[in-house]
Specification:
- By secondary structure, the chain is of the alpha+beta class.
- The protein has 14 helices and seven strands.
- It has a seven-stranded mixed sheet with strand order 2-1-6-5-4-3-7.
- The longest helix has 22 residues.
Length: 291
């Protein structure tokens, strides 16, 4: 039975543990579950020399098991049925809390594309300054190999633009203007950023009943965009195959990505990619403030 003193010590660690678990899993509810499981396991041990390190290790191992299970048996709903859900099921309090922190949300999406061990190494070292020697036993690697995992993950998170800085900035302005207008449900503002002959294509995996796979013309595309305004709240600007695009990830897991073609200040076409095979081939990265 855990005594009052140990209970107080655990509660003092809870916030830090949930922060680690949230970045590892991308879900506040799963993070809270992982920390609660660590509490249950603490009750089964006789003594702990370094409570903070022990709890962090246990929580991380629990998260690693969750991440590995996701790769084997993805359980999140995908396909048209997700698009049919009410907006409330897309926007949880944890999602709304991230609306003001676009880098954090985009980062969670990119982290979700990493292998479990890469995500563990990167998050613990780069975000929480945990030494590689302490991370290595968790991911069953040597410290040197663990450092390489983090380095590989860092390169993927940061990405590499395939266009010059000036072009990247132009793309960002256009895509950001489109996203702002879509979020506001502002038809006129969406029209302002679309070329008159714009074409929008959507993968079958993201098509809701009655939704056309292809739309042509600014008016048709803008009206289709405004209809989905509530779902645009979870979209975020990111690097998609080295250029500025959008990613959408309800509950922190990638559902679709949008790839744009634009000229000057107008979007000439965009593709909504939701097919799992196509998504897996995309290179996603965080679009930093400096870019």
């Amino acid at each position: 039975m855990i005594g009052d003193e140990l209970t107080e010590a655990f509660e003092a660690e809870r916030g830090k543990l949930e922060a680690v678990a949230y970045r590892l899993l991308g879900s506040r509810s799963e993070a809270e579950d992982a920390v609660q499981e660590a509490w249950i396991r603490l009750d089964r041990v006789d003594s702990v020399e370094n409570l903070s390190a022990w709890l962090r290790t246990v929580v991380t191992r629990i998260c690693l098991d969750v991440l590995r299970a996701r790769k084997v048996r993805p359980e999140d709903p995908t396909g048209p049925e997700l698009l049919e859900q009410a907006p409330a099921t897309w926007s949880t309090p944890e999602d709304e809390a991230l609306v003001a922190d676009s880098v954090s949300r985009a980062l969670l999406v990119v982290l979700d594309t990493l292998a479990p061990a890469e995500r563990i190494a990167f998050v613990l070292h780069d975000m929480f300054a945990v030494p590689f020697a302490q991370i290595a036993p968790i991911v069953d690697r040597t410290p040197v190999a663990t450092k390489k995992l983090a380095s590989r993950a860092r390169q993927r998170v940061q990405g590499t633009p395939v266009v010059p800085a000036a072009e990247l900035a132009r793309q960002r302005r256009v895509v950001s203007a489109f996203l702002d207008a879509a979020r506001a449900g502002d038809l006129a503002a969406v029209l302002d950023v679309l070329d008159p002959d714009v074409v929008r294509r959507v993968d079958a995996a993201a098509l809701a009943p009655g939704m056309a796979a292809e739309l042509r013309g600014a008016r048709a595309v803008a009206e289709g965009t405004v209809v989905l305004a509530s779902r645009s709240q979870l979209a975020e600007v990111a690097l998609v195959d080295g250029q500025v695009g959008l990613v959408l990830a309800p509950h922190g897991q990638l559902f679709l990505a949008i790839v744009f073609t634009s000229e000057a200040d107008r979007i000439t076409s965009y593709d909504v990619i939701a097919d799992p095979d196509r998504l897996s081939r995309l290179s996603l990265a965080v679009l930093s403030a400096e870019r």
